[in-house]
């Protein structure tokens, strides 16, 4: 059984590091970035920029990795 503080601590951890990673990102410009609970919406100029950013984020912290529900979606496969 986990503590009720776990979600709060996880949000604090991710909020701090997420901001740090975005500030240190040297790749292609992120056109739009929005985070809401466990969802993140990022817009880029093309798919290659998206994959580069996705790989950058995944390389920043060894204890954080995309789970089975993590995916990259493009405009074409949303409709």
Explain this structure to me?
The protein has 79 residues and is of the alpha+beta class. It contains two helices and two strands. It has helices at 6-24, 47-58, and strands at residues 32-36, 39-43. Strands 1-2 form a two-stranded antiparallel sheet. A hairpin with a 2-residue loop joins strand 1 (32-36) and strand 2 (39-43). The protein is globular, with a radius of gyration of 14 Å. The mean pLDDT is 80.
Number of helices: 2
What series of H and E elements makes up the topology?
Answer: HEEH
The largest sheet, given as strand count, sense and whether it forms a barrel, is:
2 strands, antiparallel
Number of strands: 2
Proportion in β-strands: 5-15%
What gap, in angstroms, lies between the N and C termini? 40 Å
What sort of overall outline do the alpha carbons produce when their principal axes are compared?
Answer: globular
Specify the structural class. Answer: alpha+beta
Spatial extent as radius of gyration: 14 Å
Question: How helix-rich are the residues, as a percent range?
Answer: 25-40%
What oligomeric arrangement do these chains adopt? single chain
Strand order of the largest sheet: 1-2
Low-confidence stretches: none
Mean pLDDT across residues: 80
């Amino acid at each position: 059984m986990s503590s009720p503080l776990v979600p709060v601590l996880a949000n604090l951890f991710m909020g701090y590091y997420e901001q740090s990673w975005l500030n240190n990102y040297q790749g292609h410009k992120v056109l739009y970035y929005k985070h809401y609970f466990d969802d993140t919406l990022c817009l880029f100029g093309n798919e290659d920029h998206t994959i580069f950013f996705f790989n950058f984020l995944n390389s920043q912290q060894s204890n954080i990795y995309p789970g089975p529900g993590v995916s990259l979606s493009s405009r074409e496969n949303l409709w």
